[in-house]
Amino acid sequence: MLRGNYRILSRVARRHASSNTLSSKYELTCGLEIHTQLNTKNKLFSMSSNKSFESLAHPNINASYFDVALPGTQPVLNYEAVLFAAKLAVSLHGTVNINSQFDRKHYFYGDQPQGYQITQHYHPFSKGGYIMLSKEFDGIDQDLSKINITQLQIEQDTARSSYLHQSLIEGREEALIDFNRSNVPLIELVTEPDFHDVKQVKAFIKKYQNLVRQLHISTGDLETGSIRVDVNVSVNEHPRVELKNLPNTSSILNAIKYEYKRQVEVLEGGSLGGSKAVETRGWDGEKTTLLRSKESAVDYRYMADPELPPVTLSPDVLVNVKKSLTQSADDCIRELMAEPYNLTLKDAKILTIQNDFNDLYNNEEVRQYYLETFNIYMLLLKDDNKKKPKIIVSWILHELLGNLKKLEIPLKKLNENMLPPELFAELLVLIHKQIISNSSAKMLLFHILEEFKANDCVKVENLDFKALIKKYDLEVQTDVSKTELEQNCRDIITELNNPKMIDDIKSGKKKNSLKYLVGLGMRKYQGKIKVQELENMFKQILELE
Ligand SMILES: Nc1ncnc2c1ncn2[C@@H]1O[C@H](COP(=O)(O)OP(=O)(O)OP(=O)(O)O)[C@@H](O)[C@H]1O
Ligand SMILES: [Mg+2]
Ligand SMILES: [Mg+2]
């Protein structure tokens, strides 16, 4: 009887596992170890330039004697890396250790020329801290979940090895080592095993990436190896398995899902292979594969590095770091969604989180431009109850940025040399007051940007929208005669020759088609008429009110 029940349960579990949903009988637990390359000017313990990304094109050009571990060279700590670590630790609500220390972690590998890595084992840089994930901002299933951070430690990166499988020497694999990455500063962040769902892992990585970018301490890219995530996975009583070499978010998530399935099978004595053991596994794109078992685990023989004194921070450093930090991304999104901005979650996120990567602008510059434009627009229209601040975000995100991309104009140049927020706000006020129509304003904006670009973005003095509107004859006509307007609108309906559409508008079935008629009217008047006037006339003709 019992056996029968167990079989049914295990079949259910297997079906759940293979469809990638987690079964309630088997709980997934994950903890992360994230290595982040800091973008300091110099390396961690030498004065070499910290440009590990140059590796592929120019190997070994940023490698000093220390980075290749010539005997007799000694480490000197780069305090910029300490400052970056302090920014991160404080942002994550961690407790910074006023006296942290460096230790040697010994192991033998070609990309580790010293024979040990300098890291922080006994006295890490900071302990504790957390990242909060929420359903609203991060798309997880629970309302809120808190992922606790165990510690942050500063350490050196290793050199980069690449393997030539078609070796010059018959029958042997050849390894190339590039020391540009050797001794690049890293922070290792270790989390508590607080993840029970892949969505939490995905959200955490995204939030962490955004944080390091916001703090300007790392480029935060997984693809280039700036951030490397190792995932420890266990299911129920299965010992933790560490997954390494996961190059991007989808590998991370797929490897966890596969590993969940594999451990469930192991617990059930199934066929996916492996034993119930502590292991380090890799990811081949389809499955996790054994890299090291516990038996081959190295004894690192940690010891305090005698060449490096303790890092002693004065309390002022932390006070000043705290002062220098800007608002958290969540608080920023919250603020943009509240009065007076009232942005949608989507727009607030675009202004807060770096997603759209290009050389022309970043989300911080766009947010600053938005906030300044907003303030000036509101000031210029302070006595107008009908001002519509929504037009600001849509004009900036859609019209302005779209054009900057099309014409390849950096926002910074635009701001400094032609269209600072105060002038852009003026244009928006002219649109709001219907002195220029939306469509004419779009044309005008594109035109001035095109000219700006053609002149190599050199400074434009005294840009005056009112004068330009006059010059190009774009002013909305205020003296349109009613009879002429009525005739024109009737002509449009006749020329359209679509009685079904007209009936649908009249019956209320397709109210939006009225906008289409208004659009045709706008075209007829070359954008020089108030939308409202056209709309009212069509309504009158079609007896809509
Ligand atoms: N039962 C568990 N299931 C899943 N993950 C776990 C479990 N217990 C601990 N972990 C995670 O394992 C990780 C341990 O990392 P830590 O750096 O402390 O040690 P390590 O992996 O042994 O060292 P190394 O840095 O040499 O890889 C943490 O992310 C922690 O959350
Ligand atoms: Mg670790
Ligand atoms: Mg580990």
Automatic annotation (TrEMBL):
Main location as per UniProt: mitochondrion
Gene3D superfamilies: 1.10.10.410
Entry-linked InterPro entries: Asn/Gln-tRNA_amidoTrfase_suB/E, Asn/Gln-tRNA_Trfase_suB/E_cat, Asn/Gln_amidotransferase, Asn/Gln_tRNA_amidoTrase-B-like, GatB, GatB_Yqey_C_2, Gln-tRNA_amidoTrfase_suB_CS, Gln_synth/guanido_kin_cat_dom
Location in the cell: Mitochondrion
Molecular function GO labels: ATP binding; glutaminyl-tRNA synthase (glutamine-hydrolyzing) activity
Signal peptide: none
Catalytic activity: L-glutamyl-tRNA(Gln) + L-glutamine + ATP + H2O = L-glutaminyl-tRNA(Gln) + L-glutamate + ADP + phosphate + H(+)
Subunit structure as annotated in this protein's UniProt entry: Subunit of the heterotrimeric GatFAB amidotransferase (AdT) complex, composed of A, B and F subunits.
Name by which UniProt lists this protein: Glutamyl-tRNA(Gln) amidotransferase subunit B, mitochondrial
Organism, scientific name: Maudiozyma humilis (Sour dough yeast)
